[in-house]
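hi! just following up on the protien thing from before. the input was this:
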Amino acid sequence: MSITRSTRRPADDRALRERHALVVALTFVTGAADATGFLALGGAFSSVMTGNMVLLGLSTGTADAELARNAGSAIAAYVLGVLVGAWVAGTATDKDPVWPRQVTAALGLELAALTVFAVLWELTQGERSPGLRLTLLAIAAAALGIQGSAVQRFGVPGLSSTYLTGTLTTLIGGVAARRPRHELLPNARVLTALIVGAGAGAVVVDHAPRWSPALLVVPMAVISLLGWRLRTR
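and the predicted 3d structure came back as:
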């Protein structure tokens, strides 16, 4: 069932709010993954490809081969994740329900990738070689690429859980235009979740690094379950 402005019911509105809450939770995972990658896996990001492209340029200017390898690998892995995620999630159609089953499948694939990340992280506690750090970074980046494609399947312009500069621009533009509070809150919540996730990721990496993967796997498992329930309701 597609949802249009003329046919939406209160139940549809509730489902849309629940979907947005799950996207906010996905953005928390993004923030935690970016903090983990940047602080523990070679100074590159898992989802911020604009930042990684800047780092790639910086590495060229400073002749930093390790930074070039890390940033370049993260970009390549993210692109691969986007391609796989797009293949699994497909593209939005007018007949899509609020939560298409293809999104559930794509997020399940992301959860599987993050589970592999968690197992490898646990098995390599202590001093990790540059190669192991690069492998972990690539797995996280690929997982976030899958997530980006999954959220795109919703077909909502401007809705994202991984690339958020546009979200910030839209929010500030809305504030400047004095748009109603209820129109500003969704973007504000997504950006807040990113910051909170990054903060939580940084704290755990610094004080309890063994538990860093839990910030990724546990929320993703809950999101996948709730998304499946939303789809089947």
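The helical segments are 10-40, 49-62, 65-89, 101-123, 130-152, 165-176, 181-207, 214-232.
Residues 165 and 191 are 9 Å apart (CA to CA).
cheers
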